[in-house]
Amino acid sequence: MGLTSTTASPPTLPLKIPLPRTYLRLPELRRTFSPVRCSTAAVSSEFDLKRYWSNLIVEINRSLDEAVPLKYPEKIYEAMRYSVLAKGAKRSPPVMCVASCELFGGNRLAAFPTACALEMVHAASLIHDDLPCMDDAQSRRGQPSNHTVYGVDMAILAGDALFPLGFRHIVNNTPTELVPEERILRVISEIANTVGSKGMAAGQFLDLDGSPNAVEFINVKKFGEMGECSAACGGLLAGASEDEVRRLRRYGRAVGVLYQVVDDILEAKASQSEEDDDKKRRKKRKSYVAMYGVEKAMEVAQELREKANMELDGFEKYGESVLPLYSFVDYAADRGFTVADLS
Fold this sequence. Notes:
This protein is mostly helical. The chain has helices at about 50-65, 75-85, 90-105, 110-130, 145-150, 150-175, 180-195, 200-210, 215-240, 240-270, 275-285, 290, 295-310, 325-335, 340; strands spanning about 35-40, 45, 140, 145. Strand 3 (about 140) and strand 4 (about 145) form a beta hairpin. Helix 2 crosses helix 6 (about 150-175). The protein starts with about 35 loop residues before the first strand and ends with a helix. Belongs to the FPP/GGPP synthase family.
């Protein structure tokens, strides 16, 4: 497919979800299993995020299974499939990409190759992050981390192979009758920037470097970049305007960091002993919780929630299509269901 470079452009505009300032009280984080409810001045509706997410996960898992087949050299593909098809994966990047594309009337078929590529790239980054020379994590997504099963050498190769496979999947499978080639080029560039030395790699470097004053930068780069990229790619595929893509970037970044901050808060509150807490603090010394404590982290989470919702206020003209994106914010803060409930 001969790709040529240009830029995209199309529509814009506003919507308001009333957000009580006391809404996020993390000590009492609700673990309910009812649908997330969203309402706006323009739209009064009940949106079932759990059902939406579950249906998408079935399609995404099927596509990933086909995209990463078991073939020669089998050992590398086994290691790739082990992480990409992990049952504990939430599939947040691909789901956000699809939802952002559908917001602007984009076809789900147009978004799926990029959505799957985002999951491959995300899995590759996690494989490398877990290595002994990086975060030295023994488990990931409810199962032993890749290097503990296949060895460090094979884990490195699996991650190395998944990055380019994601790009190739976009080029070979995105229907050009639905997505012009210039948009495909922009999506590939977007993902490359996200995982590169100015994106997630920069965050990992500073996390390893030990700079105590870089907490915000590390969290934005390690956790916000993938959310930003996922939302922006969905908009780009659908032909969103430059202003709308900028809004999606800020929204996705806020949601990505919010999810991690809430994760750190929940982990700190679940600590069984001071010794456990000590170990976790050493491991997560670059988190808001480790640096500033739970109370300050809760304030940060509330600000991020408000920021994400504020960015979505610019999409009123799209009506109920924006509800999945609003409910991702609620999910990141409240965790109304678990991954196990999605299968």
